[in-house]
Design brief:
Elements lengths: L2 H75 L1
Length: about 80
């Protein structure tokens, strides 16, 4: 009968190991999922920054055009 408690402890340890392996597997899956999300967000950020840079260039060009028009109108009135 002395072996029975040890067998019971071994079974409990096996169950705990299985539970921990399942938890580790879930954590690894979540890590992969979050890594994919992070990569997608980084791509979106890079695209947004590129578009923002283009928009800034367009606005600066429009500003120069407006300044030239204002200057031309002021010179025309003189």
């Amino acid at each position: 009968m002395a072996l029975y408690p040890k067998n019971k402890e071994i079974e409990q340890l096996k169950k705990e190991i299985a539970r921990l392996k399942a938890a580790l597997s879930e954590a690894e899956y979540e890590n992969q999922r979050l890594s994919i999300i992070n990569n997608n967000l980084e791509s979106q950020l890079a695209e947004s920054n590129r578009e923002l840079g283009e928009n800034i260039e367009v606005l600066q060009s429009l500003k120069r055009d407006i300044e030239n028009l204002v200057s031309n109108l002021q010179n025309y009135g003189e």
